[in-house]
Amino acid sequence: IPVDPFDLVIFGGTGDLARRKILPALFRRFCAGQMSPDTQIIAAARSALDTATYRGFVTEALNEFVPNRACEEGTLAGFLAIIDYVAIDATGKDGWETLVERIQGNRVRAFYFSVGPSLFAPLAERINSYGLSTQTSRIVVEKPFGHDLTSARALNAILADNFDESQIYRIDHYLGKETVQNLMAIRFGNMLFEPLWNSQYVDHIQITVAESVGVGGRGGYYDRAGAMRDMMQNHLMQLLCLIAMEPPAKFDPDAVRDEKLKVIRALDPVQPHHIVRGQYNAAPGDEDAHPSYREAVEDPRSTTESYIALKAHISNWRWANTPFYLRTGKRLVARSSVINVMFKDAPHAIFGQEAGRHANVLSIRLQPNEGITLKVTIKEPGPGGMRLLDVPLDMSFAEALGAEGEDPPDAYERLIVDVIRGNQTLFMRGDEVEAAWGWTDPIIAGWQARGDVPKPYDSGSTGPGDAELLMKRDGRKWQGIN
Ligand code: BG6
């Protein structure tokens, strides 16, 4: 469904995020016929470029990040025609009058802050003082949304001084992923699961977001963040919320976000012995291609974690005594994001203990090979008596939808369209972000107070051995990463 023509200003238009994500996402939506040729995209950045040069930058970005284009070459020309560039000084006066001239009318106007948080305040203030903020204006803010609770509060306060909460779109790109949205469809669109979705039937839940990449060229940022701030506080927390929340009365922004917030507020503080931090070593025998974390961040003494596993408890009626085990890390054996809902054993073994103990597992694969698998128990075939066997009921979304070989749409495509449509459901509310930091801060403070040093693990492994122990102590086991 096409969206009405709009104006989108991308501050940080020459940056990495614009190149890799925002421009490719806009182009794909343009190819899909969702954006009208009357739309206007204005990139704003410090460099003194003219529009023709910037369009060259866009073409290069698209060649690199949208190489196999389903749409015709003429579409690229059409897309470039709606792109403009304004050189702007985010902290001064230059360029602002030009920007004002370029944006007129009452249509939807989105300002994308694809810049460091230090520029949020000057940008927000200028958008207001130059009269650019209207009823139809909204701003889009990228992560990291602060470094801790104090800084997140300060950012929220700056934004609140200039915009209404209904105009602020805080991005967590995991929420834009097709399969993450599917979590809600699976839970609330099926009668089958929801009655079992509680501590009475679920033994525990595992959430794994494993990455095979290392920190790459982002060492400067990452070494100050670590896996806790970079992934756990936002992406894994959002997955936890969607898995654990109560059914919202309807699928509207505040109903969903209220329920997510309740989950975060019900989280217990995490015990220090329920956390494992890790840091990757070089890949054995392949040190040049895959150096250690410390080499990658150029700090031989860094104690930042590139891996974290922890056991969380949600103290509420539904989840009392059902642990949630969360883990994420870089340079692991595979890229794999999976949620495993581990059901309890049947209450009584009617086939006798020798038939084996079996429990159902619902695996929701978020990426790659998106799909769901339900492990069910059947009789082992053959005349050997009543022995039991686990088999997967397996569903791949691509196969089921006849879309094999096609990548699911990128999260940014969905999220940008939602901004234009004014739908905040898949964006984080200010109080949600603060509550997430409120849970994370004491954990990080504890490490700092104790001088905690992460456990080393080999690149290409499943993470530090202590993470296995975290489970083993509870008589449980991680499902494999693959
Ligand atoms: C980003 C993190 O938010 O998410 C990165 O800053 C991480 O460190 C990335 O690699 C993972 O996203 P995806 O979409 O590749 O799973």
Word description of this protein:
The chain has 14 helices and 15 strands. Helix 1 links the parallel strand 1 (about 5-10) and strand 2. The mean pLDDT is about 95. A nine-stranded mixed beta sheet has the order 14-13-12-11-7-10-9-8-15, with helices on both faces. The protein starts with 6 loop residues before the first strand and ends in a 10-residue tail after the last helix. The protein has two domains: about 5-140, Rossmann fold; about 175-410 and about 425-470, Dihydrodipicolinate Reductase, domain 2 (2-Layer Sandwich). With about 475 residues, the protein is an alpha/beta fold. Helix 1 (about 15-30) packs across helix 2 (about 50-65), helix 8 packs across helix 9 and helix 9 runs parallel beside helix 13. Helices cover about 35% and strands about 20% of the residues. It binds 6-O-phosphono-beta-D-glucopyranose. 6-O-phosphono-beta-D-glucopyranose (BG6) binds near residues 143, 211 and 230. Its EC number is 1.1.1.49. Catalyzes the oxidation of glucose 6-phosphate to 6-phosphogluconolactone. It catalyses: D-glucose 6-phosphate + NADP(+) = 6-phospho-D-glucono-1,5-lactone + NADPH + H(+). Pfam families: G6PD_C (PF02781), G6PD_N (PF00479).
The main sheet comes to: 9 strands, mixed
The H-level CATH homologous superfamily of the largest domain, spelled out, is Dihydrodipicolinate Reductase, domain 2
Shape: globular
Helix content class: 25-40%
- Level-1 CATH class name of the largest domain: Alpha Beta
Evaluate the radius of gyration: 24 Å
What's the N-to-C terminus distance? 36 Å
Active site: 235 (proton acceptor)
InterPro entries: G6P_DH, G6P_DH_AS, G6P_DH_C, G6P_DH_NAD-bd, NAD(P)-bd_dom_sf
Protein name: Glucose-6-phosphate 1-dehydrogenase
Domain Glucose-6-phosphate dehydrogenase C-terminal: 184-479
